[in-house]
Amino acid sequence: MDLEEKSIYRKPDVIALVGRSGTGKSHRASFVANEIGADLIIDDGLVVQEGRILAGRSAKREDTKLAAVRRAIFSDSRDAREAVNAIRRASPRRILVLGTSHAMVSRICRSLSLPYPSRVIEIEEVSTVEEINRALRIRRDLGKHVIPAPTFEVKKTFSGYLVDPLHFLLRPKSQQSESLVIEKSVVRPTYSSLGRFFIADTVISSICHFEAKRVQGVAGVLRCRLEGLPEGITIDLDLVLKFGVKVVPVLTYVQERVREAVEFSTSLNVLVLNVAARRLSLESHTGEPGGDSAFEP
Fold first, then answer.
1. 132 phi, psi to nearest 5 deg
2. Using only C-alpha atoms, what is the Rg of the chain?
3. What pLDDT, on the 0 to 100 scale, is given for residue 182?
4. Pairing mode, if any, of strands 145-147 and 40-43?
5. Which of 19-28, 216-225, 264-273 shows the lowest mean pLDDT across its residues?
6. 223 close to 263: Cβ distance less than 8 angstroms
7. Does residue 134 register a pLDDT over 60?
8. Looking at the predicted structure, is the pLDDT value of residue 253 above 70?
């Protein structure tokens, strides 16, 4: 939906959560949003609703701090337009906007055609001195950042990054309501002072070869093609199967095993995994697909 497509649009109330970098704003965001009744959270270039990323690309993926700031304030017109359209589709009553300063929050509001905040909450109002100092130490010593969304959502845009889940119990305001479990994610951004890390294609290919050949009925791997994309990877596997094998069950099982192994070992998001049988080996096979003790015939 383009901006021009919706002529009637009620501007939401905007509340700002402000604190210097590393003080735990993203960690507190879900709790604050619940307290003030905010429907959306805008944090570091992302538009988040109830744990779902509606639009944007996290600033924590950028290579430099300057690029991260530009991403966080939606300086790119295409990103801003995508975020505005997502906000309008969601029709929120109230939005929580996170920023390191009042000026940053104002810039975000201008970029997204939002009204200026009706209230500004300082991080010191919702976190203790001990909590802020602990957050600063974690940022400084470990280079870790929190994103207010579940790991399932975050891994879509942080393929190949170390993403760890954090679970919290959110107590309801009224006794009639049930407690909610909130999941956040911890990531280490590219621009962390701890440096960058890479996963070579040969490593991924070796994992694919190893897992495929563990499946009963697979005689060998002819070729493994990889394509890396910002949101994940695609894999094409060409196999040699043993004579007499049930082709479809074997290929399906190989697909499941390889996908699970690659995602577990590398944290990469496997977008597509194509498995094809290109040859048959004269080696005969009896039984059902399986490998080791994971799948018994």
1. -65, -45
2. 24
3. 45
4. unpaired
5. 264-273
6. no
7. yes
8. yes
The closest alpha carbon to 117, from 99, 130, 90, 131, belongs to 99
Six token digits for residue 87: 């906000």
Sheet holding 163-170: strands in order across? 145-147, 180-187, 163-170
Average pLDDT, whole number, for the chain?
77
Q: Are 199 and 268 in contact (CB under 8 A)?
A: yes
Give the amino acid at 147: I
Q: Identify whether the C-beta of residue 15 lies closer than 8 Å to the C-beta of residue 115.
A: no
Q: Which helix (H) or strand (E) holds 250?
A: helix 247-266
Residues 6 or more apart whose Cβ sits within 8 Å of residue 209: 221, 224
Identify which of 147, 163, 145, 165 has the alpha carbon closest to the alpha carbon of residue 263: 163
Of the pLDDT bands very low, low, confident and very high (cuts 50, 70, 90), residue 184 is very low
The CA–CA distances, whole Å, from 102 to 28, 39, 106, 120, 139 equal 18, 21, 6, 8, 22
Residue 267 Ramachandran class (φ > 0 left, ψ -120 to 50 alpha, else beta): left
Contact assessment for residue 270 and residue 263, using Cβ atoms and an 8 Å cutoff: yes
What amino acid is encoded at 213 in this protein?
Answer: K
CA–CA distance, 291 with 219 (Å, rounded to integer): 12
Residues in CB range of 33: below 8 A, 6 or more apart: 41, 96
Q: State how far the Cα of 52 lies from the Cα of 148, in Å rounded to an integer.
A: 9
Q: Quick one: tokens of 32?
A: 């604050």
